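Following up on my earlier thread - several people asked me to post the actual chain instead of describing it. Fair enough. Here it is, all 362 residues.
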Amino acid sequence: MATYLDDTQRNDIDRLAASRTWRTQWPTWALIVAIYGGWFGVAAHAPLLGLPLTAALLAIFGAWFMSLQHELLHGHPTRSQFVNALLGFAPLAVWFPYHVYRESHLRHHDDARLTEPGSDPESYFVSAAEWQRAGIAMRALLVFRNTLTGRLLVGPAFAIAATGAQALDKIRDGDWRDLPAWLAHLAALVALTVWLQQMCGIPAWVFIVGAGYGSLALASVRSFHEHRIAQEPAHRTVINEAGWLWRLLFLNNNYHLVHHDLPQVPWFALRTVYQTSRQQYIERSGAFLVKGYSEWVRRYGFASVAHPVAIGTSDSGRRNPPASAGFAGKLRVKFMVVVRQGELHEAHLPAPAERQTAEQAL
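Reply from S.P.:
Thanks for posting it. Predicted structure:
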């Protein structure tokens, strides 16, 4: 469901939708050709490129393909769910069937439940009960996962394990609806792996680990803290004013609040929509504004962006540090402090003095 800022924006987007670019979706068709052509072009030239460079390039194209799959499941470039599924079926990023990803991601778009464990399938928070059940090692991994370095290194493993466990749980509960998608995906993955090994000289482990895991790790840069816990749903989703290379790789999904408000807007129009109403979107997000992914590297490369435990959006929104440098001001922020026994206590810590007010950031 679309959420417009006002009638003026609605009319502006209607005019954009009537343009030849939007009606033909030619940028997305060109993107499909570029991604498939680039991925298979790299694979075909693996002996010339060498395995390390081949794996790195396949990981980049795999992450780009995942961005394309995201565009496909939101109804671009065609209105046919079947055609879009065919375009996103290939296991170029290895791990997840397109159908499973589509169903999971559409559940994620319930903005009222964003970040809630058990409701938001893309949440990086856990419930207090899950935290209590976790051992010391798992708690350490959960905290590490909420650093940028941890998100890249162990975040994909968490995602793979969670998706696999969910698939097995469904089968155990007698829900077989996803099984055909998994079987088709695994069959295509085996065929592609054999072709890569026999025709391109790319070992299976290089494809599965180097390219596949690498694709998930690179995609994790975008998803790192793109949602935070907050009382107001619109304040939970980030606006990241990233550079053009990141915008191209992630298909402008860095303007994430705009995408959540207007999921029907194709990737090539998101930047225009954002820039036209930049001030309004910054205010709507509660100043959840980031000046590029380098800000995450500087601030959270090895520091946890938030405690892994979520205790309800109405309360825990005050327990996690604001993600934007321009949001906290001189407020006192509640953090969750872990003690050895696994209990959670509130510690009232002053926000960093260098944080500006939202007005200064704008």
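Strands lie at 239-240, 289-290, 332-338, 344-350. That should answer part of your original question.
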